[in-house]
């Protein structure tokens, strides 16, 4: 029997229940994966609360690491015994074992523990496409990054520094300033919507930022726009304070012909090749010490 966490209604953590389910037969292209560790992401919380809707009843979770225990018909990219991880659907990672599409598995090196692999895959791929596809961060890039102490921020800040960027971290309280500095931020600001843009201008001698990475949403959106240089890029990739209000196109023009994007992991891992390339880059960056899995 397999232990799996399921929910039949949305709400607090108490809606999650452990169920014992039978192992199911494998279809073409599937493997049976014995899971040693799972990752928890803010998206899981949003789905559990109902802010992001999923069909119910359902499992939960999109990230895990483990060992291939059996393979179904037509599987050629992995073998029984392989150490693997994944960071996309189908939903249902919160389980001791599961069926999973073989082509979405990523081989992990022996030097990386299951715990570390599960902690870095989803968040690492998110950081990877934000830093290398959404905006090509490199030497001299000036970026503003919210949530430095969060799971994605703890990967993005040191990785951006490794790529040569000047990183201005934004935190919610003074107690988080030192942690942000330890993660590599060149400057750290405690969020204040009224003063943020002026502080960014002061730090950059009036130039402002090339790109702002904002996972906060409604609370910070307008202040983030004001932190950008002309033709800068606003990256809204989360909404922990609620979804931003609709934007008038004329506003982007008035603030300096700004660019605005709302990227997603699904759109950046839609093909097998792109998914594997991003995952390999994350694992290579872990081995190189550019980013470090952090578990809490």
Characterization of the model:
- By secondary structure, the protein is an alpha/beta fold.
- The chain has two domains: 2-107, Alpha-Beta Complex (Quinone Oxidoreductase, Chain A, domain 1), CATH 3.90.180; 123-266, 3-Layer(aba) Sandwich (Rossmann fold), CATH 3.40.50.720.
- The chain contains nine helices and 13 strands.
- It has a six-stranded parallel sheet, sandwiched between helices.
List the helices and strands and how they pair.
Layout: E1 2-6, E2 17-21, E3 30-38, H1 42-49, E4 64-71, E5 83-86, E6 97-101, E7 106-107, H2 114-134, E8 142-146, H3 153-163, E9 166-171, H4 177-182, E10 187-190, H5 196-203, E11 209-214, H6 221-226, E12 228-236, H7 249-254, E13 259-261, H8 265-268, H9 272-287
Helix pairs in contact: 2-3, 2-9
In DSSP terms, counting alpha (H) and pi (I) runs of 4 or more, how many helices? 9
- Based on secondary structure, the structural category is alpha/beta
- Rg result: 20 Å
* CATH C-level of the largest domain: Alpha Beta
As laid out across the biggest beta sheet, the strand order is 10-9-8-11-12-13
Main beta-sheet strand count, sense and barrel state: 6 strands, parallel
As for the number of domains, it is 2
What percent strand? 15-25%
Q: What is the name of the CATH architecture of the largest domain? A: 3-Layer(aba) Sandwich
> What name does CATH use for the topology of the largest domain?
Rossmann fold
Mean pLDDT: 95
How helix-rich are the residues, as a percent range? 25-40%
The CATH homologous superfamily of the largest domain is named NAD(P)-binding Rossmann-like Domain
């Amino acid at each position: 029997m397999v232990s799996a966490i399921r929910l039949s209604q949305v709400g607090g953590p108490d809606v999650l229940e452990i169920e014992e389910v039978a192992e199911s037969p494998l279809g073409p292209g599937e493997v049976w994966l014995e899971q040693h560790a799972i990752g928890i992401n803010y998206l899981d919380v949003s789905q559990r609360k109902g802010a992001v809707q999923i069909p119910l009843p359902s499992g939960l979770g999109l990230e895990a690491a483990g060992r291939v225990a059996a393979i179904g018909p037509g599987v050629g990219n992995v073998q029984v015994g392989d150490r693997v991880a994944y960071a996309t659907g189908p939903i249902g990672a919160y389980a001791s074992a599961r069926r999973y599409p073989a082509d979405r598995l990523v081989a992990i090196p022996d030097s990386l523990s299951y715990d570390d692999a599960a902690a870095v895959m989803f968040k690492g791929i998110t950081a990877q496409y934000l830093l290398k596809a959404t905006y090509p961060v490199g030497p001299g890039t000036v970026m503003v990054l919210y949530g430095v102490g969060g799971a994605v921020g703890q990967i993005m800040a040191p990785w951006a520094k490794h790529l040569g960027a000047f990183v201005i971290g934004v935190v919610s309280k003074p107690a988080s300033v030192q942690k942000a500095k330890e993660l590599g931020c060149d400057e750290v600001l405690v969020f204040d919507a009224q003063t943020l843009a002026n502080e960014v201008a002061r730090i950059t001698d009036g130039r402002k930022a090339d790109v702002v990475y904002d996972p906060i949403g409604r609370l910070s959106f307008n202040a983030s726009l004001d932190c950008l240089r002309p033709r800068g890029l606003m990256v809204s990739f989360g909404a922990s304070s609620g979804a931003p209000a609709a934007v008038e196109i004329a506003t982007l023009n008035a603030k300096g012909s700004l660019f605005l994007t709302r990227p997603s992991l699904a759109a950046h891992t839609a093909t097998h090749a792109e998914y594997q390339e991003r995952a390999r880059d994350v694992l290579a960056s872990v081995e190189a010490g550019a980013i470090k899995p952090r578990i809490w």
